[in-house]
Design goal:
mainly alpha, 2 strands
């Protein structure tokens, strides 16, 4: 009987990691970097789903979407605060 081939090692999605970095920086850039962060997160989720188990990082990508959403809310809130000073 031939020995079974080892299962391929799972790699964490590089896009999921990049989205985490962008979202972390988004907290210090008034949420501006949250926009590319959420795009990377969505693309990462799609690639993870299509990888057939070769990529991991689904939870990371989902958490990044939540963080991006908060960053975008911060961006909107700060923008509205700036506009209220003009009136």
């Amino acid at each position: 009987m031939a020995p079974e081939a080892p299962a391929p090692a799972q790699k964490t999605s590089a896009l999921a990691i990049w989205s985490l970095v962008l979202n972390g920086l988004g907290l210090f850039s008034y949420g501006i970097l949250s926009i590319p962060g959420i795009i990377c997160s969505i693309v990462a989720l799609t690639r993870i789903r299509r990888s057939g188990g070769q990529l991991r990082g689904r939870g990371l990508a989902i958490a990044d979407i939540v963080i991006s959403g908060l960053g975008l809310l911060l961006l909107i809130w700060l923008g509205l605060e700036d506009l209220s000073h003009l009136c």
